[in-house]
Amino acid sequence: MGGGGGSGARRAARWAAAAVLGALWWWAVLRLALAPDAGVLEGAVAAGGWGLSLLPVHCVSRDEAARTVRRVWTVRAPGR
User: Fold this and answer.
1) Nearest to 46 by CA among 19, 26, 76
2) What is the pLDDT of residues 7-56, one digit of tens each?
3) CA separation for the pair 43, 29 (Å, rounded)
């Protein structure tokens, strides 16, 4: 059915990467909170993950993003 050129595999890979990175972030945060010997590595991972959460990221398809950019940047001629 699909014929999306492996889009299901790419989606699964993105979810797997997100799960691994999320688990790594939680490990760093919990280690910072609970382990007396937590250090710079845990702090960097926790701060980096928190910093990424502040980015205004919106997930849309490339086609939708291209349509939006064209719509925003299209200047209408006077009198139209």
Assistant:
1) 26
2) 888 889 989 998 998 898 899 999 989 988 988 988 888 888 777 766 66
3) 8
Q: Are 25 and 46 in contact (CB under 8 A)?
A: yes
Alpha-carbon span 72 to 14, nearest angstrom: 29
**Residue pair 25/45 in contact by the 8 Å Cβ criterion:** yes
DSSP class of residue 4 equals S
Q: Which residues of 18-56 are buried (b: 16+ CB within 10 A; e: fewer)?
A: eeeeeeebeebbebeeeeeebeeebeebbeebeeeeeee
Residue 40: both structure tokens together: 């710079």
Position 1 scores a pLDDT of 47
Determine if the pTM surpasses 0.85: no
Q: Structural domain boundaries of the chain?
A: 7-73
